[in-house]
Specification:
This protein has 145 residues and is mainly alpha-helical. 88% of the residues lie in helices and 0% in strands. Helix 1 packs antiparallel against helix 2 and helix 2 (89-115) packs antiparallel against helix 3. The longest helix is centred in the first third of the chain and has 79 residues, at 2-80.
Length: 145
Amino acid sequence: MKKAIFLAAFSAIAVGSIVSSCESKSEKVEEAKEDVREAKEDLKEAQRELNAEYPAFKTAEDERITANEKRIAELKEKLNKPGKAPLDDMRAKRIAELEEKNAQLRSRLYGYEQERTDWNQFKQEWNHDMEGFDQSFKDLGKDNK
């Protein structure tokens, strides 16, 4: 009799342990599913913010690039203007480099739509590159000899 009660109690404890361990696994699965849902919601929210912010950013930066193209065209015109002392070959080379860098910036701006990398990092790098471009433009008139 004692053996039967002991066996029944042991069986009940074993079954209880198995059931409780299964519940914790299912709870973990539910928590993981909830985490995935939240991550998807966060991603959708970030995409909505990007979709709202990127077109305005793109328009403003495209205008800056167009203004840079005009400044470069003016410098080229000054470079080739008859009657004035032409700029030296070094400055002509720098103007060509600025033109190339401006074209690369435009390509990056329009290429972002396909890449869709981290938006904040893209903006930070973009602003750094544009500041560098503006500084290069200012340094064009200086003589670094």
